[in-house]
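User: Could you go from structure to sequence for me? I need the amino acid at each position, not a summary. Structure tokens:
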């Protein structure tokens, strides 16, 4: 894949939980970094079609592998910087040549 295919801009955020001083936990998302990305919309299989019927949108978000992107786990969240759409990460897979990282994500689910 050519670097020119990375036309989108995404941010990666990790969930941060803090005590509010009254014994309650306050949670929020804290952006860690931004990166260029490519989207691959999944088509075909029964589970993909079922997800779309439930207004969920599964897809692969691919970024260049680096020190920051290698830290990302399924507990993180990806946000499309242009549209503001938020994606829950279900799986993280490095390519066999370790140049790319693919995130199996889904929009429309609670992260």
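Assistant: Here is the amino acid at each position, in order:
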């Amino acid at each position: 894949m050519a670097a020119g295919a990375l036309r989108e801009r995404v941010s990666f955020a990790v969930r941060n939980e803090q005590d509010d001083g009254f014994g309650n936990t306050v949670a929020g998302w804290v952006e860690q970094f931004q990166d260029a990305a490519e989207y691959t919309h999944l088509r075909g299989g029964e589970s993909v079609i079922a997800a779309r019927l439930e207004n969920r949108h599964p897809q692969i978000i691919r970024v260049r592998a680096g020190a920051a992107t290698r830290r990302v786990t399924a507990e993180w969240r990806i946000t499309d910087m242009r549209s503001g759409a938020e994606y829950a990460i279900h799986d993280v897979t490095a390519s066999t040549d370790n140049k790319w990282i693919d995130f199996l994500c889904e929009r429309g689910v609670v992260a």
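One structural detail worth keeping in mind: Strands lie at 8-19, 25-41, 57-64, 77-80, 86-94, 100-107.
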